[in-house]
Amino acid sequence: MKSIQSSSKPDVAILLSFLLILPLGLLADLITEPVEQMTVEAFSTSAWTDHTLAFEEVFKVIKVDSMLEFGLGKSTKIFLDNVPSVASLELASECTLNRSLSWYQECIKKFMPVYPHWRTSLRMCSADVGVLTANAFQGKPLPGSLSPAYFKEIADACAQGLALLNGTCTLAFVDSGEYGRADIVNELFSKKIPIVAAHDTIATDWERQFYGYERLDPPKGYVAITFPVRKHITFWIRQDLYGDETIGKIKLAAERMESLACLAS
Questions:
Q1: For residues 108 and 116, what is the distance between their CA atoms, to the nearest angstrom?
Q2: Residue 4: alpha-carbon gap to chain centroid
Q3: Residues of the chain with pLDDT > 70: what percent?
Q4: Domains of the chain, with CATH numbers?
Q5: What's the rounded Cα separation, in Å, for the pair 124 and 34?
Q6: What is the SS3 assignment for 198?
Q7: Which of 44, 88, 112, 163 has the greatest number of C-beta atoms within 10 Å?
Q8: 85-92 and 195-199 beta bridge pairing
């Protein structure tokens, strides 16, 4: 495993070495709008970013002091606007490196000058994850069982992300482009993270297999709340920390969103 990490600026030498393998077409700007125009309202029209509507509702109810996200993107800007301490871990493998690194460098270019407290890292996953990702993209059958080495890579990735926040994390959000989002979520459950969220929890058959959501295993004490944005986002919230009243407010917000979606259709 290799990583690129940044607390105030990226490691330029390492980034440049990776840029040598990028196709020229990927060097164009990926985020065209100015940072100040990147708002929840602007993001609400796209399936890629409308999950920020759900986060807006959660942030109204719960004060999130620290947040870890797996998979950077435009929505990172909304997290930086609302959370004092944000860390972002981009996962990459051999078959996704060009895409992941282009996103990573673009987000740094856009956000780091405005949010110098943001901490980021790019992790090159081992072949235990990379081969599964490549096989899924190529339409090859995925294994019925996963190796201990695969689960160790998932655990190590989570540990790397949490280390960016010195081990203190209120909310973790999983939106990675590598195989096995569910296994990251389960690892975060094992760390007793107060709030865990995952994107695209309504998915096609291929996506369900790729994300592994059938393996989700939330422990007793986590309450699941799904917001019906285009691809759905589910939050698992610890009952012992937030209680019925707070969780009830978030449930109501999700129900209101569903009612509005029904009226719109």
A1: 10
A2: 17
A3: 87
A4: 12-21+40-264 (3.40.50)
A5: 29
A6: strand
A7: 88
A8: unpaired
List Cβ<8 Å contacts ≥24 apart for 206-209.
206/136, 209/136, 209/142
Is pLDDT of 123 > 50? yes
Residue predicted with more confidence, 188 or 32: 188
pLDDT in tens, 142-176: 777 899 999 999 999 999 999 999 989 999 999 99
Helix axes 181-190, 148-164, angle to 10 degrees: 60
Q: pLDDT at residue 6 above 80? A: no
How is 116-139 classified by DSSP, letter by letter?
A: TT-EEEEEE--HHHHHHHHHHHTT
Q: What is d(CA 113, CA 115) in angstroms, rounded to the nearest whole number?
A: 6
Question: What residue type is assigned to position 125 of the chain?
Answer: C
For residue 84, pLDDT over 90 is answered with yes
